[in-house]
């Protein structure tokens, strides 16, 4: 009998549950590598090996020992890089080169490629120490970040040399390579653009505008509480969106690859913040599939295997928004009022993201998302009204019944 094909999946996050299931449907025996004891995708995988997905030598050793046919990850940048590394060593299929994977996990290298290829982005400088900052290259307002972190870790707006020194020191501390990037701040609304490069062209599959709380004073409120899609863009901005997508695909040599970029719509046009050659985490794969005819997980597998992806963006005839529910510090027990809001048509889909008993520190960051929901409407105004109605009737409570929904975040809605 022919031996069953083996796939190694790096990381057992929730979006990887779908990845594991699809691989099994395609006939693979799926081995999950994740150092956690009980990651969400463990229950669907055939086998779980507890090692760090970011330890590329270890992953290489396991892949060799187990004779893997595929090493894959769909939405974790650093894990994607490990996949490319192992695949190049073992001659396995992979979506892009290991070098590209390194360029895209380092914000300094990424900005360099953007600028060399005429992709609009703010000016930047990098540094390994507070004493060697190239002050000539800095204009305020600016943003300081570690070059190789994610989830907004260590990202701050700065408006003075003193603030810059302080935040650069912090960013260097957080960075695995001890490097900070300082770049021009882009004023405007933030968008995310999901695309696929196929052999003949680049298709924009969905645009989303991030919804954010209005910044207080100069503070940069980084976490968004949801998004609206399609993003409200003029024809000229849509043209820029497409043009940038094409330039990114060309600059990073992406062929047959799903990717997305984040950008700011400024008075001077669209400025790119960063891009990733994958599908976004969180609700991305769900909304792409439900509303844009884009089965991201299938496409990622095809991309890894080098099978031509065929997609056609679906014309979006209604408007949608996602709202993420965050709670104040406490122990989560339950969300109430959701069913009535579903009956009233204010909520069209609801997702519980945390289990009863989860301890939440109150910070507005991905790990503290309690639930999310989708609103559907015929206009942006209707979306807003429905979201407001829903939020006013929903509550998050602890076991004692204390109200813990962090309402301040939605005050600008
Ligand atoms: N140059 C900038 N101008 C304005 N906002 C920025 C800039 N850089 C980052 N941000 C804000 O910070 C967030 C996180 O920064 P990003 O570069 O995307 O890092 P991460 O890899 O942590 O997501 C962005 O989504 C955006 O809201
Ligand atoms: Mg980002």
Characterization of the model:
The longest helix is centred in the middle third of the chain and has 17 residues, at 235-251. The strands form five sheets. Strands 13-12-9-10-11-14-19-17 form an eight-stranded antiparallel beta sheet. Strands 3-2-1-4 form a four-stranded parallel beta sheet. Strands 5-8-6-7 form a four-stranded antiparallel beta sheet, sandwiched between helices. With 413 residues, the protein is of the alpha+beta class. The protein is built from eleven helices and 20 strands.
Low-confidence stretches: none
Shape: globular
- Please state how the strands of the largest beta sheet are arranged side by side: 13-12-9-10-11-14-19-17
Give the integer mean of the pLDDT values: 93
Describe the largest sheet. 8 strands, antiparallel
Beta-strand portion reads 25-35%
Rg, Cα atoms, Å: 22 Å
Q: How many beta strands in the DSSP annotation?
A: 20
* Euclidean distance between termini CA atoms: 60 Å
User: Helicity range of the residues?
Assistant: 25-40%
Structural class category: alpha+beta
Compute the number of helices.
Answer: 11
The small molecules bound here are: adenosine-5'-diphosphate, magnesium ion
Oligomeric composition of the shown chains? single chain
What layout of secondary structure does this protein have?
Blueprint: E1 6-10, H1 15-25, E2 29-33, E3 47-49, H2 56-65, E4 70-72, H3 77-90, H4 98-104, H5 107-116, E5 124-127, E6 142-146, E7 156-158, H6 161-174, E8 180-184, E9 189-197, E10 202-212, E11 224-229, H7 235-251, E12 257-266, E13 269-276, H8 284-292, H9 296-305, E14 319-326, E15 330-331, E16 334-336, H10 338-343, E17 349-352, E18 359-360, E19 369-377, H11 380-393, E20 395-397
Parallel strand pairs: 1-2, 1-4, 2-3
Antiparallel strand pairs: 5-8, 6-7, 6-8, 9-10, 9-12, 10-11, 11-14, 12-13, 14-19, 15-18, 16-20, 17-19
Bound molecules: adenosine-5'-diphosphate and magnesium ion.
Adenosine-5'-diphosphate (ADP) binds near residues 143, 152, 190, 262 and 274.
């Amino acid at each position: 009998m022919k031996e069953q094909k083996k796939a190694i999946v790096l990381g057992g996050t929730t979006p990887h549950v779908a990845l594991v299931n699809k691989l099994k449907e395609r006939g693979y025996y799926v081995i999950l590598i994740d150092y956690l004891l009980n990651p969400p995708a463990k229950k669907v995988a055939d086998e779980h090996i507890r090692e760090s997905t970011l330890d590329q030598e270890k992953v290489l050793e396991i892949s060799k020992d187990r004779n893997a046919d595929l090493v894959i990850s769909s939405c974790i940048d650093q894990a994607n890089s490990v996949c490319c590394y192992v695949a190049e060593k073992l001659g396995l299929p992979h979506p892009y080169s290991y070098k590209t994977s390194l360029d895209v996990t380092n914000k300094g290298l990424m900005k360099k490629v953007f600028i060399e290829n005429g992709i609009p982005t703010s000016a930047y400088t990098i540094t390994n120490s507070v004493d060697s900052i190239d002050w000539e290259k800095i204009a305020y307002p600016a943003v300081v970040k570690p070059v190789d972190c994610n989830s907004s870790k260590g990202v701050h707006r700065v408006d003075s040399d003193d603030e810059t020194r302080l935040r650069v020191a912090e960013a260097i501390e957080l960075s695995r390579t001890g490097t900070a990037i300082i770049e021009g701040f882009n004023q405007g609304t933030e968008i995310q653009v999901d695309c696929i490069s196929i052999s003949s062209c680049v298709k924009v599959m969905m645009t989303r505008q991030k919804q954010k709380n209005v910044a207080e004073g100069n503070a940069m409120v980084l976490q968004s509480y949801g998004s609206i899609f399609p993003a409200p863009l003029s024809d000229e901005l849509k043209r820029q969106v497409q043009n940038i997508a094409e330039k990114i695909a060309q600059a990073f040599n992406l062929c047959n690859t799903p990717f997305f970029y984040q950008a700011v719509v400024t008075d001077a046009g669209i400025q790119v913040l960063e891009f990733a050659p994958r599908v976004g985490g969180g609700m991305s794969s769900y909304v792409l599939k439900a509303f844009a005819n884009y089965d991201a997980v299938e496409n990622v597998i095809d991309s890894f295997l080098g099978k031509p992806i065929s997609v056609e963006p679906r014309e979006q005839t209604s408007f949608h928004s996602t709202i993420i529910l965050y709670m104040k510090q406490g122990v989560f027990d339950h969300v109430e009022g959701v069913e009535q809001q579903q009956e009233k048509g204010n909520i069209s889909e609801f997702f519980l993201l945390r289990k009863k008993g989860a301890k939440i520190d109150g910070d507005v960051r991905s790990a503290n998302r309690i639930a999310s929901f989708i609103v559907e409407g015929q206009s942006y105004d209707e979306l807003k009204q429905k979201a407001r109605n829903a939020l006013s009737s929903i509550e998050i409570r602890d076991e004692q019944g204390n109200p813990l929904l962090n309402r301040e975040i939605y005050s600008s809605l």
